[in-house]
Structure formats: structure tokens, C-alpha cells
Amino acid sequence: MNGVIVIDKPPRFTSHDVVNRVRRILVQRSVGHLGTLDPAATGVLPIVVGNLTRLAQFYAHSEKTYEGVIRFGFATDTYDADGAPTTPVQDVEVRLEEIRALAQPFKGVIEQMPPPFSAKKIAGVPAYKLARKNKEVVLKPIQVDIKELEIMHVEADRVTFRARVGSGTYIRSVAHDMGKKLGCGAHLASLRRTGAAEFAIEDAHTLEAVATQMQQGTVASLFVHPRKLVPLLPCVTATEETAALIRSGRSVNLPEMSRAPEVKVFYGQTELIAVATRIAGTLFHPRMVFGNSLT
């Protein structure tokens, strides 16, 4: 069973929890995810199954979109609502234009400090493991790209936003730093990922729905169509003879692909059999060969 299925991650589940649950539901050992989502967050978590776990390298720097709420009035040690307050709790009431002005410097390519409770490693140890033991966490700022940060609504001390960000951006740090700049503290009250790469919340399924469809023998209908995966790579359909050569790791001529440096190779409409790289002219060599796809 090879494929990609988009899960609507429930709160309080780690991304690894979701992977383990999908393993049990699908009775598959080879399962992974395309981008960690914080336990408190919900939303889009693409899950890769079988040989298509090898596609993960194409999603290492994927853009993500989020919707969420920032609460002003106090900061927390985790930078979200699960943490303990680290500043005095204040009653504040922010204004829409004030917060929109506050958000402006956070747009674009900026230096951002990751949260102490994060997966960033210090001497090979994830920062959150040190933080849980009350050990010193010394992190370095990282460069991130916040492509969009739209303040949608303000009500008392809560601010609703939408964001589109590059890989590695911590929305929790945005909330924390905004509160620090305003002087009253802030943390991320809630977060929902609405998109990751080409995967949208409209494509997502609950774990319960996946389990039900598996029991009914119709789980294949929930998987993303293989031709929609890695959309930057063009698709080419191989003949039976060409497909046999590709499956055996042989180079082949793909005359219709005279310019693309890399292509997805299909046998029929739904069977993704390889990702092939141009050697010269129209000669391509398979750098990844997959088994039968699920859909």
C-alpha cells in the first residue's frame, strides 16, 4: 500500500502519535509525515504510506498556512496555552489598528528565536527535553520567511490571524515576540494549519473516518491522487515497455519531456512508478522507483 493521505490532526496528539495511529489502522509499517505539527495545534498533517515515504525530501521546505488566535496579557514558557505563565497576568484590551501596526515588522524574512519547548537540537538533544528538566536552553536565532501575516479580528485581549510562512517558522514565537514588543506578554491560544505544500484542509480526513473506510474496504478513496503529488514535477505516462525498463532501474528516452530536468513517471493514470532525472537530451534515469500505488 503506497499513497499520501491528509489527516486533520486532533488536538493533544503529537505528529508521531498520528503516524502510529495510521500504522495500526492501515496495518502498515512504513508510515511517515510531511512536517511536524505541535501537539496543541490541529489541521493539515500529510501522511505518507509505503514506498511513497521517499517523497518526503520534496517537502522538506514546504510553505504552510495557518489560522489562529493570540492572547495578549501574559507570556508562557511554551509560548502557547499549554504552558505556565512567565509574566504577570494583566487585563489588556488591544485595538485592531494597534495590532496590525505591531504585526508589520514580523512580515518578510526575519530573524526568529525558536521556543525553548521545541524540537530544535542542542548538542544532539531536542530543546524540549532539556526544558522539561528545567535545564538551560540556549538556542540561536534562525532566519524565517513570513510571507503573509493578516490580523483579521480583535476582541479584548484576543487577536485572530491568518499566516502563510516558509519552512521552519514558529507561529508560537511570533505570538511571544509580539507580546514582548507590546510590553504585556502574549502567547498562542490556538492554532490550526489550513495548508501544507499542495495539501489543503479541504483534503483532510479525521482518524475516525480513515478507520471507518478501512473497515469498509474503501480507504483508497481517501488518498490523494498520485498525479497531484509534487506538482512542480511534470507527469509523463510510460508505455508498457518503457515502464518495465524503468522498474528495473534502466535509463529510458522520454521524447515528450525535452526540457524538464526531473519528471514523475506513471504507468496508466494512477500508478506512480518513478521519479526520473534527465541525463542528457531526452534520456532520463530513474532516481526513485516505487511499487504499485494505492489509487
How many domains in all?
Answer: 3
Instruction: Characterize the biggest β-sheet.
Output: 9 strands, mixed
Count of strand segments: 16
**Proportion of helical residues:** 10-25%
User: What percentage of the residues does DSSP assign to strands (E)?
Assistant: 25-35%
Distance between the termini: 9 Å
What is the general shape?
Answer: elongated
The topology string of helices and strands comes to EHEEEHEEEHEEHEEHEHEEEE
Structural class: alpha+beta
CATH architecture descriptor text of the largest domain: 2-Layer Sandwich
Given the structure, what is the number of helices?
Answer: 6
- Identify the CATH homologous superfamily of the largest domain: Pseudouridine synthase
Describe the structure.
The protein has helices at 15-26, 96-103, 127-132, 171-182, 207-216, 240-247; strands spanning 3-9, 31-33, 42-49, 64-72, 108-112, 121-122, 125-126, 142-155, 158-165, 186-196, 199-200, 235-237, 252-253, 262-267, 271-280, 283-289. With 295 residues, the protein is of the alpha+beta class. The strands form three sheets. Strands 1, 2, 3, 4, 5, 8, 9, 10 and 11 form a nine-stranded mixed beta sheet that branches. A hairpin with a 2-residue loop joins strand 15 and strand 16 (283-289). The mean pLDDT is 91.
Strands, helices and their partners?
Elements (H helix, E strand, L loop, with lengths): L2 E7 L5 H12 L4 E3 L8 E8 L14 E9 L23 H8 L4 E5 L8 E2 L2 E2 H6 L9 E14 L2 E8 L5 H12 L3 E11 L2 E2 L6 H10 L18 E3 L2 H8 L4 E2 L8 E6 L3 E10 L2 E7 L6
Parallel strand pairs: 3-10, 12-14
Antiparallel strand pairs: 1-3, 2-3, 4-9, 4-10, 5-8, 6-7, 8-9, 10-11, 13-16, 14-15, 15-16
